[in-house]
Amino acid sequence: MSNSVIIENFDKFLKDNAKRRTPERSMILECALEFGKQFTVEDLVEAMSHKDFIVSQATIYNTVLLLVEAGVLRQFSVDNRSHYERADNVSFIHLKCEHCGKVKLVKDTNFMAYMKARKFPAFTTSYYNFTVYGTCNDCARRIKQSKRKNKSSKKAK
């Protein structure tokens, strides 16, 4: 979905719910749509700080919740921290490294096909969002190197 259509839909949502379209909300929406991947409110606060537009952190939090309510953003949790992504994004599996905390997004069209093929009474899957925990390649290499160093230092003694 194009940004202009999303903005139009958000404007309609605000009007239908007797809420005002403020310059702050508009700027926060535009900034949120610039993220090509998942983000936290803290990421959005940081991105907004680089704009020549001052917005309070509370306004950003409240607007993000409004964007979720309007269906512009999806909210999900990783390690009990809220993350957000565009609602029109394809569903992803989040691969989270337990050592460094890095999160990688992976598309898996087979999983969505599997979910759509399943028959759940009175339920239709629209998207999925889950996190798989493990060790990324960088951390696995560091751990392996660390173990080698420990073995060689024990042999030297």
Give me some keywords for this one.
18% strand, 157 residues, two-stranded antiparallel ribbon, flat, alpha+beta, three-stranded mixed β-sheet
Describe this structure in words.
The chain has helices at 3-16, 23-34, 41-49, 57-69, 109-117, 137-156, and strands at 73-78, 81-86, 92-97, 103-106, 129-134. With 157 residues, the protein is an alpha+beta fold. The longest helix is centred in the last third of the chain and has 20 residues, at 137-156. The termini are far apart.
Element order: H for helix, E for strand:
HHHHEEEEHEH
Bulk shape: flat
Q: Regions with pLDDT < 50 over 5+ consecutive residues?
A: none
Q: Give, in spatial order, the strands making up the sheet with the most strands.
A: 4-3-5
Query: For the report, how would you describe the main beta sheet?
Result: 3 strands, mixed
